[in-house]
Amino acid sequence: MVPGTWVPHDPQKAGGSTSAEGSSDDLSTPWSRGFASEISRLRSRGVTYAQSADFLREIVRRASLRFTDIRDDPRRFFLAHRLLAAHAPAHGPGFWIRFTVQFNLFAGTVVALGGPEHLRLLDAIQAAGELGCFCLTERLAGVNSGLVVNTTATYDSNTKTFILNSKNEGACKNWISQGLTAEWAVVVADLTTCDGKRVGPHGFLVRLRDSSRANKKGGSSLRRGVTVGDMGLKTTGLDLDNAWVRFSDFRVPHASLLDRHGGVDAATGAYLGAAKKPMEMIGQRLFTGRVAVAQAALVFSRTLFLNTKKYSDGKMCAMRGTTPALSDVPQLRALYDEAEKRFARMESFVNKCEKGLCAALVADETPKLAATRAIAVAKIRAVETCVELCHRLKQEVGSYA
Question: Which pTM value belongs to this model?
Answer without folding.
Answer: 0.89
